[in-house]
């Protein structure tokens, strides 16, 4: 999203609204939330995506009219998701961030659904919302902006509003806060539920069994405003919640041609020859180029190109080759970090690593984890295999609020989980 689309960023502090009528407990809790968001990492783990202060969050308001992608003449409609499970073929128009929480009519907005492919920037978007609220740049009509990661087991187990308002070390104030929010039926509270596709399927399917689902459908805290992010593949369970008079469907559409060029220029900086070679590389590799619309893919592709070009290796021309190089690069970087001499002696493929080596045994177990996850539609793991490290292929996530001690893991990209699943299958006996 371009800087001109960032709401009231230019409003001087003296002109920003304040809410002296808010009860002290709400003001106190708001300060706690701001301190949490101020210390939260606002970039993708391991710097595998653009930072949120770069103008790369492009939003689309999705209209109800389905379109034929081959015939529709609206150029913006063609800037959409790709992949078997992540297609949105509906008319859309660009929407600035400051219009996300407004409706054209006088109806009250209850639910905003933000969809997008993995790595497209959904979590970056909600973190940017938190950043703007904590700095009092926008979202000031909301007394509280509460970010909750739906991957956290505790959120799925929530039984009431208190479980959605984490506040460590303040049990007395917390009870007062819960009563105040309940008395207001959630008015003035914005809940940001990030990762609906990571929410347990059985809770999605049985709304009455989950307090989160009750908040989403307005049965609980009906005056609250809710934004939920999700992959489109999970829309089946969000569809019943969509109401034409109180719901918005928004898509994070990723990079256009201009953003791709800007991103590459930022990565390669003053290396004009490398940038020119990279442009040539994309020109003759349409499969790789088609992946560049996704910011996370952009990071992966530029990193792999830089590494292979620097080491004078053959640059990848297929998606499989790309992820082979990415796996080897991350593995090499991990081994280098722990002082393992294998870092500079890895073979050209994971399968060529001697199968009696400790490294191979770890890769086999991680591949098995990936495969079993794919079989069970699991992308979030509570632990890594025994006697294994993440090898740079898995990313650790700690709960945002310190009172919740849960740690989860996932592959840094869903395609890497698929790649490691294929590696595992290839190692099994032919029988």
From TrEMBL:
* InterPro entries according to UniProt: NACHT_NTPase (IPR007111), P-loop_NTPase (IPR027417)
Protein name, per record: NACHT, LRR and PYD domains-containing protein 3
Please give the Gene3D superfamilies that the UniProt record associates with this protein.
P-loop containing nucleotide triphosphate hydrolases
Q: Which PANTHER family match?
A: SLR5058 PROTEIN
- Lineage, uppermost ranks: Eukaryota, Metazoa, Porifera, Demospongiae, Heteroscleromorpha
Domain NACHT, first and last residues per copy: 110-236
Q: Which Pfam families match?
A: NACHT
